[in-house]
Amino acid sequence: IGRRDGIVELRSVEFGLSFARYRSNIAYRTNANQITIKNVANSSDENSQSKNLSFLKIVYSIHMNESKILVHFKDSLILFDSKTLEKISEIPGDFEKCEFALSESAIVYSKGKELMFIDSVGAVLYSFTFQSVIRSISSSLDGVIIGCVDGTISIIINKKSHLLVQHDSSVEWIERKENQIAILDKNSRCVIYDSFNSSVLRSIDFSTSFAFNDRVTDLYASSNGSTISVYYKDCQPMNHFVEGNLLAFVENKLIVSN
């Protein structure tokens, strides 16, 4: 950058991490306008090479399920078949500052206190209004989990909203596996709740990222940015001194971005 006062500056423009996973399939942004899709479980298989998708605008976020990949842009959504990577549909709209989740039956997104369920062409299926701003949403096998600024954790099942847990601070990230709900709050604390009785199964301080294992029940990992701790039931955690953001825990692989 050349300034009028004669000073020349060199600045870098960085785009935040964008990552999605469904079982052993992952998708991540490699450039501002490009994503890569690969199967990390078959990384040694010659037939499981990485595949790329490029666009003419900046990718905001990526989301996956068994059959589809959703690519989120500021002014549109594009839906792809996850096996053939053929384009299914494109939905125009104002999707800036939205959170997304992808279920088998709908595209789910939030903006402020509103939660919308739309189909593959953008038609609204149903919607909800929450009392507080929605910070994170995540799809699970039987519904969609919502975490809000006021600490409420709810689930949408069969077009109805049910309050599961009242956390004591803002929920910044949320994910559910079977009967366990893991959240990261604004105080860098990870809390794992039992979704049936709302009891706390484990609380981990100084946690910046978390991942359930995709295969084994009660196996998960948490990172504080410099150390990854792997937990299994009541066993002592196994610590790995790895810097970065924990993205996924696939089979025996910890996927980390640094």
Main attributes of the structure:
single chain; globular
Unreliably modeled segments: none
Structural class: mainly beta
Largest sheet: 4 strands, antiparallel
Radius of gyration: 19 Å
Order of helices and strands: EEEEEEEEEEEEEEEEEEEEEEEEEE
Topology, number of strands:
26
Work out the helicity level. under 10%
First and last CA, distance: 28 Å
Sheet-strand content, in percent, reads over 45%
Output mean pLDDT: 93
Order of strands across the biggest sheet?
A: 1-2-3-4
* Shape field: globular
The DSSP helix count reads 0
Task: Quickly describe the structure.
With 258 residues, the chain is an all-beta fold. It has no helices and 26 strands.
Describe the protein's architecture and organization.
The structure is a single chain. This protein is an all-beta fold and 258 residues long. The chain has strands at 19-22, 25-31, 34-39, 51-54, 61-64, 68-72, 76-81, 87-92, 99-102, 107-111, 114-118, 124-129, 134-140, 143-148, 152-157, 160-166, 171-177, 180-185, 190-194, 200-204, 209-212, 219-223, 228-232, 238-240, 245-250, 253-257. The strands form 7 sheets. A 4-stranded antiparallel sheet has the order 1-2-3-4, with no helix packed on it. It has a 4-stranded antiparallel sheet with strand order 5-6-7-8, with no helix packed on it. A 4-stranded antiparallel sheet has the order 9-10-11-12, with no helix packed on it. Strand 7 (76-81) and strand 8 (87-92) form a beta hairpin. 29% of the residues are buried.
